Amino acid sequence: MTVRGVPILLFLAAVFISLPACDAASAHIHTHQHNKVDSNERMEDGAFSPRDADHYAEGEHHQEFDHEAILGSVKEAEEFDKLPIEESKKRLGILLTKMDLNKDKYIERNELKAWILRSFSMLSAEESQDRLDDADTDEDGRVTWDEVLQDTYGSDPEDLAQDDKLFKDDKETFEVADLNKDGYLDTDEFKAYTHPEETPRMFPLLLKHALEDKDVDKDGYISFQEFIGDRAKSKDKEWLLTEKDKFDYEHDKNGDGRLDSDEILSWLVPSNEEIASDEVDHLFVGSDDDHDNRLSFDEILDHHDIFVGSEATDYGDHLQDIDRFSDEL
C-alpha cells in the first residue's frame, strides 16, 4: 500500500520520526476558552467548527438546526417549539412572505438559500450580543479588553501568564477587531472578535495565528507533519491514514504536499455557502412533495414542523415581535 506513491511503512516511519519537532507549534492551537461560545468552537485540528456541526450526531438528526436556520434565532426557535400548531403555522406564513423575493407564492432554492445565509448571520449576531451583554459590566453598550478578560478568564486574570499563546492571540484578536482603535468594541466590532471566521477583515489575523501555531520551519506553508503536530502521538495508524487522506484530497487542493495561504484559510474557515446549500437540499427532500424543485407555501406549511417545529402545547397567545423579519434581504 502506498500514500501518493510512498510505501506506507516508510511514510508512517517518516511521520512519527518527525513528530517531536512539531510539538511546540501545535501545543497552543488558538481556541477561545469562553464559556459562552457556541458555533465558533474549534475542531481538534484547529479549524473553526462549521455551523452545522451538530446537525447530525452519531447518525441522529437534530431538527433544532433546521429551525434555527429558518428563524435566525435560538430564542425564537425555542419559542416556536412551544407554540400551538396553528400559531406556529401562522407565524411561519408571515415569514414566507418575506422569504418569497419575487412574490410568486413559491420559495425557490435561491430564495431559501439567501434566507438561510441571512439567518446564519442573525444567529451569530445573537450569540455575540448575548456575550457582549454578559461582559459589559458597566452597561455602556461596549466592552473594554479588561471586561473581556474578566468575562473570559474569570476573577483572577493576573494568574494567567501574560506570554501564554492563547492569551496573546486573544488580545491581538481584540485589537484587530477594534476598527476605530478607541479601546472599546461596539456591537459590530465585538461580533468580529467573537466570530472572526465570519468576518473577512479578520482573515489575515487567522492566517497569521495558524502559521504561528503550525509552521515550524517558518517557510510560510504547512506540511502534513506540521498539520498533525503532536496529535498523532496518541492516535493509531488508521487515524493517521485518514488524516493524510483528508489533507491530500480536501485541504491540499493543488496537490503540492503543503498548504499555502488560500488553502490554510479554506481549511480554517467553514463555508456557510456550502452549509446553506446542503440545508436547502435537506429541507427540499423533506417537503417538496410534487418534486417540482420549488416549494409552495402549502407544502411548507404542511411540513411546518421541519421548518419551525411545534410541540402542540397550549403555550397561550403570547406573541413575540416579528417585525425583525420585515427588513429586506
From TrEMBL:
Calcium as UniProt keyword: yes
Stretch forming the signal peptide: 1-24
MF (Gene Ontology): calcium ion binding
Any one Pfam family match given in the protein's UniProt record, by short name: EF-hand_7
Listed SMART domains: EFh
GO biological process: protein transport
Region of interest called Disordered, as start-end residue ranges on this chain: 32-53
Name of the protein in its database record: Reticulocalbin-3
The organism's taxonomic lineage, starting at the top: Eukaryota, Metazoa, Ecdysozoa, Arthropoda, Hexapoda
